[in-house]
Amino acid sequence: MLPTSFIGSVIVGKTIFERGRNNLEQQMLFGVASVSQILNDWMEDHRLILKSISNDPGIKTLDPDTATEALKRHEDAIPNSALTLYKLDGEAVASNATPKPKNTKARKDDRIAAQWFKRATNGENGLGLWRRSNGTSCLKQSRGIYRGKELIGIIAKCTIPEDIAARSGIKKTVMLHGEQSSVATALNLDQGINTGIGVALVSRQKQIVLLHLEGQAATNGGQLLNPIESQKSRWIPIAEKIIQAKSKQQATILNINHFLVASVPINDEFILAFILNTVPFLETFLLAGAGVGLANLTALTISTIALTRISKPLLKPIDVAGDALRQMSEGDFGIALPESTNRDIQKLYGYIEASSSQLSTYFKEVTRNAATNSQLEQAKKLQSGFLVKELPGSQAFTISAMCQPAYEIGADWYDAFRPDCETDESIVIVVADVCDKGIGSALYMSVFRSLLRLSLLKEWESCQCCGTAIKAAVETVNEYMACNHGQDAMFATAFVAAYSPSTQVMHYVVAGHEPPIIQTNQELSQLKPSGPAIGVFPSASYQIHQCILQPGSIVLAFSDGLVDTRNETGESLGQQKVRSIMQEKDSQSWGAHELVERLNGAATTHRGKAEQFDDLTLMTLKIERLNNTKSKQI
Q1: Residue 366 backbone dihedrals phi, psi, to 5 degrees
Q2: CATH number reported for the structural domain that contains residue 75 in this entry
């Protein structure tokens, strides 16, 4: 009877151990995945904010005073982080950091060599650990600043690890009930504290930031050291194993010596890891097994009582934890778990409560972001109303057009209308581009577009002359925008033309815009420039040009988003590629809609996986030989 009871006790003990360990692994995986999601969302929010800051006209001046004022306007968007503007040679132009960044040759060289700086200069979003002038570490996020397609500088924000730890809820997770509690111990290998739990942010260069220790670096109390010095840290063997694991964007359990590690990559540069010393966990079950064995040797009754006393306290907390997880999966994050005298079980409860609190905060933020996204979507719908839904057409011509914004809402637009539907078949076409991108440029786009159309209609009614009406309208809009909004440094480039089927003459103005291309059979020609962009110089004069459009010819107008489309290596599509595409057929074989689709497809193929950084607008005017009453728009 005793051997049977002993074997049964061993089986029960093994089952309890495996169940407890599996639950512990699942909780660590759940915790690291939850914190990783929160950190990723936090970094994505800051990436979008940096993107917005990089488009600020004051930032693009690279003037220290102007840029400093611009940085002040954005401080509230990224609290507890320092913003710094750099030139491409590593010089800090403006910063709200304390102390101010130093501009010694060594510091500038360090910046240029840093991963976060290199990636930003390559058109990517930079991220990396950085040692500040005062010796402490911070997490740098960065991106390039462009004037048109030219990279002119780098904008970066520096966040101290303490703020990262607070943002992710790590401190609450590890120090569950304050410093007086013995429930959870902060693992600190370099200080000889080998029990407890730790949370580490590990870079591919073996730099380690211990988020559970107020965000200090593993090697020297917050100071980032070089890789050779880093090898002295007792955290390095664990970091090396974590890096070697190479998990693919999913949480992974690792057994490293007597440590249980749950890790997940945050991005190409960093891995987040929960690290737990399993020795106390094993000791708990070994002691329980010894008690059971001793009880079996003494008497069956005593072993039965001992087994009951051990099993019930161990199994019941796990069932409680399972119920709490079920509540969380159903969307109920109001988790309140009882106190446990078992240290490891209390850790498990603490993980669940901390994860529940962080998930609750995360879902609230998602809800707020959804409201903002809804407002942006509404603005996008309103702005799309400015684009012509039904393009005019006749037996004499066909028009096709498309506009693809780089962001949620764009600053390019096109227009096409008949200024006098009753007595004249003439058609007015417009393709224009407001400087920069984003919400501010989109607002100016609506002003430019409305003023230009109104002025064209008014001038046409006054003079009934294509060339005179276009010139007067463009100069009127330029005068108003330059005088009333010139201080905002917002302007628009535009191609404005009027085509008369009866005379086959097109009058046009090219105001600082990409010159449209005319194809007649296989021959290509560019239209002439007329003057500067609209809204720059109040007294600017615009020269009106004219040309004859032969039947079968086709006119292509486009924004710079076409020729400036860049692939992952930064190579632009270019004017020559556009011209070669047009010459794939003669003009009589091209349809207006077909050419727009071909060029849009070419831009998409050339871009590949690279981010679209500028709005793309295309318009074609095909002079027909045969009757064709269709107009197409994509």
Answers
A1: -60, -40
A2: 3.30.450.20
**Tens of pLDDT, residues 67-96:** 999 898 888 878 888 999 999 999 999 999
Of 273, 277, 278, the C-alpha closest to 244 is 273
> Are 155 and 74 spatial neighbours (Cβ–Cβ below 8 Å)?
no
Question: In this structure, what token pair is assigned to residue 443?
Answer: 């607002």
* CA-based torsion, 375, 378, 382, 388: positive or negative: positive
525 Cβ contact list (under 8 Å, min separation 6):
517, 518
> Which CATH number does the domain housing residue 607 bear?
3.60.40.10
Spatial contact of 427 and 418, defined as CB atoms under 8 Å apart: yes
Q: What is the dihedral of CA 313, 315, 321, 327, to 10 degrees?
A: -120
CA distance 177 to 175: 6
CA-based nearest residue to 128, from 209, 200, 49:
209
Residues 211 and 353 occupy one common structural domain:
yes
Query: Where in the sequence is the domain holding 390, given as residue range(s)?
Result: 385-623
Compute the Cα dihedral for 94, 100, 106, 110 and give only its sign: negative
Sign of CA dihedral 85, 90, 93, 96: positive
Do 285 and 354 belong to one domain?
yes
Please state, in angstroms and rounded to a whole number, the distance separating the CA atoms of residues 49 and 60: 16
Average pLDDT over residues 368-378: 53
The two three-digit tokens of residue 360, written as one number: 């609750």
- Looking at the DSSP bridge assignments, the partners of residue 433 are 412, 493
> Three-class SS of residue 421?
coil
The pLDDT score that the predictor gives to residue 549 is 96
C-beta of residue 533 within 8 angstroms of C-beta of residue 492: yes
Strands 150-159 and 427-434: unpaired
Q: Which two tokens stand for residue 367?
A: 């809800």
Give 239's contacts (C-beta < 8 A, 6+ positions apart).
200, 202, 206, 208, 218
pTM of the model: 0.46
Among 220, 333, 322, 235, residue whose Cα is nearest residue 275? 235
Token code pair at residue 466: 């294509």
